[in-house]
Specification:
By secondary structure, the protein is α/β, with parallel strands linked by helices. Among the domains are: about 140-215, Thrombin, subunit H; about 250-445, 3-Layer(aba) Sandwich (Rossmann fold); about 460-610, P-loop containing nucleotide triphosphate hydrolases (Rossmann fold, 3-Layer(aba) Sandwich); about 665-790, Aspartate Aminotransferase, domain 1. It is about 40% helix and about 15% strand. The protein has a seven-stranded parallel beta sheet with strand order 10-11-9-12-13-8-14, sandwiched between helices. A six-stranded parallel beta sheet has the order 15-20-19-16-18-17, sandwiched between helices. Helix 12 (about 405-415) links the parallel strand 12 and strand 13. The longest helix has 30 residues, at about 220-245. Keywords: ATP-binding, DNA-binding, Helicase, Hydrolase, Nucleotide-binding.
């Protein structure tokens, strides 16, 4: 017996149960009786089964190569299968029971590691006895007017906490008061702590569409069900993503004895978090047979680069190439300088920088060296992902600050993950990366311990005034330091330049932005790094990469136009030495700021301590959303219940993944004991020439998997046109039998007016499938008892849906 993971698509080697069940019902369902078959029956398998119980109606006269409607049930089903599996790998080998057990255990362990490493214990969360994770809110942290979610009642507006005397006592107790659409609820504080969640949405709008009603919780229950359905889809996507990664193989890298000498060059004492990250990456490369895909999350200056350098050394010393990808040429140049210096003791290892600073001839020479394997380490920006760059033996991709790349570049980066080891460095990971790390489906190491000499950056947030700017710059210059002055746009740099030249006539001031000539930009950065320029007026081109020990004041004007992760990165440009650093964040007028901008600034103020980039990224996910995680927006799904409850439900579903397994049965053991004996028209038989051979081929395709059956029916129609109704019945029977095998149904038979399916499916899986159905009639007609699923949806008069 093949053991399979719960998967919403019911096709391929791991049947995907979910999406097929939510296939939209037909507009019209014709009369269904034991003597006829539904012409336009839904592709919903549990409903389609009842349709097959009918004997075939008298077929219409078949015409050679007749046209067929694009919305007949087989075409609709094929379209759905192709849409859901078009980008999936369809040639994966079947997974047996032992292999499924092993992978499910690995998934659970991975998820637990994700929670333990990345979340720990934070204020307002609890860890349950089952190792789950809770996002429940502390009522004392709520402000009047905040929106909250009660797990059993729904969405309300927090009013406050007051003392009140209960009816059966004389002692006053604290109660939480919550306003709902039809009245006020009063909850004891202890109960509220167990059942309340903060309501956050993954977009700018914080206000829910409507408040829930105390008198009718059915609407809320439906919203929760929609959330559960969405979560199961996401769980399946996560499982498939992770299992696909586990199945990729490469030989482990050899442990190199000279790694100790390379590591000894690191001039600092590694922090405990750094040491753990070194160990994590070393195990990924030298002990695992699957390609590494690890996130190193740590604040600027906390030692992420050293982790990458050791990984590069491990791969390159084994004869492979390493690519270091940076979002800006400034950061790429810094990586090149650091790597070149670190590998200078190993002349056999060649390092190259591919950038727009080079001439065409230099670029062509580098491209040839990369192709021939003469360059071991290649550093550059997104140009390294271009089609002209052909690698000889690429083994490792290091991505710095992934959030700075565009969608196409991220897709290209993702394509590398099936064949090479990938190490991603980030202080504030993008929501999708953070999401995968939080759920444990992406390996992650968190470096949150600051180097001993680092001092937290002092953050000043206020409205813009020239006097404040001059005072801040003067204080830094008086102690011999340098200043970054950052604006969101190139327009406005000249105006600031004139203002500062007038205020500080004897100080060297320069501008830097992405539209400058390459050599000019390079020279400006070099002079600032050498301390010759005291004030650098720039755009966020300096967001990543510049490590200027003597620059310990940064002024950011119009902060409302920057993202939270950008502000955090910009603030990290200072405070990289043992001096106290200052970040001055200026906004024009608080009354002009949006709620989202105010929340970003509030989050930045709260995350003043060192090593809080990960927590800040989590806040950013709550403010601006998950983004596109698996190709479709999750905003609506999360909006049903709010981010916090959604995440808790997701973690709960992941922790119980083994309870949602489906055990398929071999196709040839599935019996359909319903009297269906359609006869093919003689014209069609003569046209096919050898109909029995074609039917046998269809049977073989169905025995293989759903994808093969889909391809067979499409090829049949391309070659012979639309089949007559009796042949359609034969094909539908194969589809139902294939679905039944994938769902663990081994027999389908009629008992009076009921269709019965013998199955090994658990009640939990059945309920999950039933909840995902879009039609109330279908849901109400199905019952699970013992090892049987009974379908009472047997005879219909004409209905519309």
């Amino acid at each position: 017996m093949t053991s399979l993971l719960p998967n919403p698509d019911l096709v391929s080697t791991t049947p995907l149960v979910f999406k097929l069940y939510s296939f939209p019902p037909p507009r019209r369902l014709f009369t269904l009786r034991r003597s006829s078959f539904a012409r336009n029956s839904s592709s919903l398998p549990l409903v389609a089964v009842s349709s097959l119980s009918a004997t075939a109606a008298k077929p219409t006269r078949w015409r050679e190569k007749q046209e067929f409607a694009e919305n007949d049930s087989i075409s609709l089903l094929n379209e759905r299968i192709r849409r859901d599996l078009g980008k999936r790998e369809t040639s994966r080998p079947a997974m047996d029971s032992e292999e499924a057990d092993k992978y499910i255990q690995m998934v659970k362990e991975q998820q637990e590691r994700g929670l333990q490493k990345l979340k720990g214990v934070r204020q307002g969360t609890e860890t349950g006895s089952g190792g789950g994770f809770s996002y429940k809110v502390d009522p004392y942290s709520l402000l009047s007017g905040d929106y909250v979610v009660h797990k059993k009642v729904g969405i309300g507006r927090f009013v406050g906490i007051k003392f009140d005397v209960p009816k059966d006592s004389s002692e006053p107790l604290e109660y939480v008061f919550i306003e709902y659409a039809d009245g006020m609820a009063k909850l004891p504080l202890k109960q509220a702590s167990r059942l309340l969640y903060r309501y956050n949405l993954p977009n700018e709008t914080k206000r829910p569409r409507t408040l829930s009603r105390l008198s009718d919780t059915s609407v809320w229950e439906r919203r929760k069900t929609k959330g559960k359905v969405a979560i199961q889809k996401m769980v399946v996507d996560l499982m498939e993503l992770y299992l696909h990664r586990l199945r990729q193989k490469r030989y482990p890298y050899p442990k190199n004895p000279i790694m100790a000498d390379f590591a000894a060059q690191f001039p600092y004492n590694a922090t405990p978090d750094q040491k753990q990250a070194f160990l994590d990456v070393d195990k990924d490369l030298t002990e695992r047979e699957t390609p590494m895909d690890r996130l190193i999350c740590g604040d600027v200056g906390f030692g992420k680069t050293e982790v990458a350098l050791r990984a590069i050394f491990c791969v390159v010393s084994a004869g492979k190439q390493a690519m270091v990808l940076a979002p800006t040429i400034v950061l790429a140049k810094q990586h090149y300088d650091v790597i070149s210096e670190r590998f200078s003791l190993y002349p056999q290892i060649k390092v190259g920088l591919l950038s727009r600073f080079q001439t065409k001839a230099e670029k062509e020479e580098y491209l040839e060296m990369i192709k021939n394997g003469d360059l071991n380490i290649i550093v550059g920006t997104h140009s390294l992902l271009g089609s002209r760059v052909v690698y000889s033996n690429l083994g490792l991709l290091v991505v710095d600050e992934e959030q700075r790349f565009g969608v196409k570049q991220k897709e290209k980066i993702a394509s590398f993950k099936t064949s090479v080891d990938v190490l991603t460095l980030s202080a504030t990971p993008i929501p999708r990366t953070l999401y995968l790390a939080l759920t444990g489906f992406r390996d992650a190491s968190l470096i949150s311990t600051p180097p001993p000499e680092r001092i937290p950056i002092k953050t000043h947030l206020s409205s813009f005034r020239k006097e404040k700017v001059i005072e801040a710059i003067k204080n830094e210059l008086d102690r011999g330091g340098q200043v970054f002055y950052v604006l969101p746009r190139i327009k406005g740099l000249e105006e600031v330049m004139n203002f500062l030249e007038e205020a500080f006539p004897d100080i060297d001031i320069a501008m830097a932005h992405g539209k400058q000539y390459s050599k000019q930009l390079e020279e400006t950065m070099e002079r600032f790094a050498q301390g010759k320029i005291k004030i650098l007026i720039c755009t966020n081109i300096v967001e990543s990469g510049l490590d200027i020990q003597n620059a310990n004041t940064i002024i950011i004007q119009d902060v409302q136009q920057f993202g939270l992760a950008q502000l955090y990165q910009l603030r990290g440009r200072v405070g990289r030495a043992d001096k106290e650093a200052h970040a001055y964040l200026f906004y024009p007028d608080k009354s002009l700021l949006s709620d989202q901008a105010l929340e970003r600034l509030s989050a930045l103020e709260e995350c003043r301590e060192l090593g809080q980039g990960f927590q800040l990224a989590e806040r950013d996910m709550g403010i601006r959303g998950f983004g596109t995680i698996f190709g479709e927006q999750q905003t609506g799904d999360v909006g049903n219940v709010g981010i916090d409850l959604f995440f808790e439900m997701l973690f709960e579903s992941l922790s119980k993944v083994e309870e949602l397994r489906i055990f398929s049965v071999p196709y040839n053991l599935v019996k359909i004991d319903i009297d269906i004996n359609p006869r093919l028209p003689s014209e069609y038989v003569n046209y096919l020439e050898n109909p029995m051979e074609i039917i046998n081929e269809a049977e073989k395709a169905a025995e293989k998997d759903m994808w093969s059956l889909m391809q067979f029916t499409e090829n049949l129609r391309r070659q012979y046109g639309k089949e007559p109704y009796s042949m359609e019945i034969i094909l539908k029977k194969l589809y139902v039998r294939r679905m039944a095998a994938d769902l663990g149904v081994n027999r389908i038979y009629a008992s009076g007016k009921i269709v019965v399916m013998k199955t090994n499916m658990s009640k939990k899986v059945f309920n999950l499938i039933k909840d995902s159905m879009t039609c109330d009639v279908y849901r109400s007609s199905l019952i699970h008892e013992g090892d049987q699923i009974m379908n009472f949806c047997w005879s219909y008069q004409e209905n519309s849906y």
